[in-house]
Amino acid sequence: MNNQKQHYSQFIKAEAKRLGFLSCGIAKAGFLEAEAPRLERWLHQGFHGEMQYMENHFDKRLDPRLLVDDAKSVISVLLNYFPAETQQEDTYKISKYAYGKDYHYVIKDKLKALLHSIQTEIGAVNGRAFVDSAPVLDKAWAAKSGLGWIGKNANLITQKTGSYYFVAELIVDLELDYDPPTTDHCGTCTACIDACPTQAIVAPYVVDGSKCISYFTIELKNQLPETMKGAWNDWVFGCDVCQEVCPWNRFATPHQEPQFNPHPDLLSFSKKDWEEITEDIFKEVFRDSAVKRTQYQGLKRNIDFLK
Asked: Could you say which residues bind tRNA here (predicted)?
């Protein structure tokens, strides 16, 4: 039986690699005991701001067996999005993860293909793919399956490649061979805490989401707080500062996913281009991008706030 579990696990990891995933780890599905009090404390302190959805499905967030009947294993995958080229200097910036096609679609397709391969090879396996849009603690599961550790900026970090990747998972009702977690390699480094433009990393490993530039530029639908004027370092969608200063991201290498390549005009946009962006240009440049989440008016609001 153990040999079979090992064989299945090796097959799944090989398939994940074939589909373009950076890496794949497997953990036993169960209640996330260590995460429960942390999540409760985080919500209690209001660090989720107006992201009310974070309060929903508390139990499901902590136990994948409530999401998939008879869940046995959580298969976590990483997909690199680090770009070969970045935006020009002195312009309004968007987070690197939003350069290309919306990752939800790209990863969902790959995970469906992975599940199909598992069913073809192994038989009747029931499973569901999750890409950051359901109540699953992605990073906790990835860390549990040895893909990296959760850093002081609350991102998953890997020694060989840093943190510029998406985390997603497939929860299945199949017993597999489980990977041990890795160790924390942040050490005494506080680069991310020191560099955060809005002091959103309120303690090592604790991010006040309601102070994060990503929250203001993407999640917050109301008026932007005047107290934040001048603190955004030209970010109009998301923010990469805590990743840019992380020493482990020295090892980031460009992704090989054509769907993540940016629209040709994006990288050369000047501040003037951003300020004069029309709804038609917005639709053209960000047609399939995650930037669509802010909608045209939201992006304009963010740009006007920085002018």
From this structure: 221
Check the annotation: does 61 bind a ligand.
yes
Domain boundaries, the chain: 1-307
pLDDT category at 244 given cuts 50, 70, 90 is very high
Q: Which of 132, 194, 288, 304 is catalytic?
A: 132
5 is in an annotated binding site: no
Q: Is the pLDDT of residue 302 over 90?
A: yes
Please indicate if the annotation marks 293 as binding a ligand: no
Residues 35-68 pLDDT 10s: 988 988 998 898 888 888 788 888 889 999 999 9
Among candidate residues 19, 120, 139, the one with its CA nearest the CA of residue 79: 19
Cα–Cα distance, 65 to 210 (Å, whole number): 30
pLDDT band at 1 (very low <50, low <70, confident <90, very high): low
pLDDT tops 80 at residue 236: yes
pLDDT of 187 strictly over 90: yes
Residue 109 annotated to the active site: no
